[in-house]
Amino acid sequence: MDRTLIKDLKEKIDKQVKIQGFVSVIRDLKKIMFIVMRDQSGEVQVYVDKENKEFEKIIQDITLESALMVSGKITKNPTVKLGGLEIKAKEIVIENKADFPLPINLDPNETPAGLEKRLDWRFLDLRRPEHLLIFKVQTTAEQAMREFWTKNGFVEIHSPKLMGSASESGGELFTLDYFGKPAYLAQSPQFYKQMAIAAGFDRVFEIGPVFRANPSRTSRHDTEFTSVDVEMSWIGSHEDVMSFEEKWLQYVLEKVSEKHIKEIKDKFGLELVVPKLPFPRLKMSEAVAVLKEMNYTVPPETKGDLDPQGERLLGEYVKKKFDHEFVFVIDYGISIRPFYHMRHEDNSKLTKSFDLLWKGLEITTGAQREHRYDVLIKQAKEKGLSLEPMDFYLDMFKYGTPPHGGFGFGLTRMLMVMLDLKNVREATYLYRGINRLKP
C-alpha cells in the first residue's frame, strides 16, 4: 500500500490507508489509546484498541516524536478537532523509537526552550509545523523570484566564493590559506555579477551564500547568509533598478499570499500584505528631517547612515503617512557607499544609491554602478584603495561596459520581516554566528 499524506486523507473516507510520520501526542486511556501523528502536510488522530493483542507490546514502546507507520481505515468523527477524521489502526510499526525525554520540549501548549538550546537541537526544533512553514514560504518565494526574472530576460549565474581580493570595502573578511597564499570568502558576488554585465549577459541574478566576519550579536546579523543578487544593463539611473525591484517584490509576495496566506494567519497570526506600487521614496536628507520632526537624531557614529532605531521610526512614519510597509531611502552620501557607486552629476557628494526598508528594517542595498573606467579609477583613489588587487575588476571597464545597476537582497532578513520573526536565526536553516559553527 502506498503512503497517503495526511492532507489527502479526506479524499479516502472509509478506505484503508497507510500514513507515516512522527508522534505528536499520546493519550493513553484504560482500553484505548489515541495517538496524534504529524507529517509535513498536517496532523491526524489514530484510534488504537489496546485490547488488540497484536498492539500490546508495540504501544508500550511508543514515545513522543517516534517515527511511526500506521495503516487502517480512515473514518469521519465529528468530535475530533483535527479535521473531523480518525484512523482506526490495523497495523502499527515503530520505524525508529525516540529517546525519552526529548532534549527540548515540542509541545505547542508549553513554553519552548531558549533559542540557543533550540539551535543546539535544530533538527528537532524544525519539526514544529510553524518552523516548517518558514521554509515552505522560502521555497515559494524563491520559485516566484526565478519566475519573474526569467520572464524578464534574466540569466542565472553562480559566482565563486573563494576570492583573491576583497569583494567589498575590505573589512569583515574571512581569510584562509589557499595553497600558501591568502584567499578570502566572498562577502558579495558584486564584482562577478558586474563581470557578467561586461560579458554582455544584459541581466543576471544569483541566489547563493555570502560570508561576513561581522562581530555583531544582534537579532539581524549572521556570518553566513543567503544573498539574492540582481544586476541590469542599460539603465538610466538607480530609479530603473528600484522600479524593477518593487515590481519583482510585489510578484513574489502575491505568489506567497496565494499559496500560504491562510497557513501564515493560522501559524503566525499575521495578515500578509501584498504591497501596492510604487513604493514611497525618501531622500536620505528627507529621512533625517523626518526623524528630527519625530524628536530623534541619528547618532553621529553612523556617519551618514541610518541606525536601527532610525529605521524603525522611519518605518512607522511611512506606514502612517503612506499606508505602506516599504520605503526606498535614496541618495546616500559618498562617505558610506563603495567607490563603484555612481555619483550625481549635479552633486558629487551624493551617490545614485538606495536602501529598501520593510517594516522599518533594511533588506536591500542597491545603486547605479559607475561604468566609466577613468571615473572609477578616480573614485577608488579618493577612497584610498590600492588598485593592483582589483586589476581583474577594473579591466572590465576598459572594453565597452554598458551603464548598469543592481541590488543585493538578504533572503533570511526577508523571511524574518515577512513573518514577523524576532530573530534572523529563526529564518535560517542552520545559523552561523560568532559562537556557532554547529550543528
Provide a concise account of the structure shown.
With 439 residues, this protein is an alpha+beta fold. It has helices spanning 56-61, 115-120, 122-125, 129-151, 190-198, 238-268, 284-293, 308-322, 373-382, 391-394, 411-418; strands spanning 16-28, 32-39, 42-49, 67-76, 85-96, 155-156, 162-163, 175-178, 181-185, 203-211, 224-233, 281-283, 326-330, 343-344, 347-351, 353-358, 361-368, 404-410.
Which short descriptors sum up this protein?
439 residues, alpha+beta, OB fold (Dihydrolipoamide Acetyltransferase, E2P), BirA Bifunctional Protein, domain 2, 2 domains, 5-stranded mixed barrel, elongated
Q: Which structural category do the helix and sheet elements fall into?
A: alpha+beta
Highest-level CATH class of the largest domain: Alpha Beta
The radius of gyration over CA amounts to 27 Å
Q: Major sheet: size, sense and barrel closure?
A: 8 strands, mixed
Residues in β-strands, percent? 25-35%
Specify the overall morphology. elongated
What would CATH call the architecture of the largest domain? 2-Layer Sandwich
Output mean pLDDT. Answer: 95
Please name the CATH topology of the largest domain: BirA Bifunctional Protein, domain 2
CATH superfamily of the largest domain: Bira Bifunctional Protein, Domain 2
Strand order of the largest sheet: 6-10-11-18-17-16-13-12
Q: How many β strands by DSSP?
A: 18
Order of helices and strands: EEEHEEHHHEEEEHEEHEHHEEEEEHHEH
Distance between the termini: 36 Å
Low-pLDDT runs:
none
Can you give the helix content as a percent range?
A: 25-40%
Q: How many individual domains?
A: 2
**Total helical segments:** 11
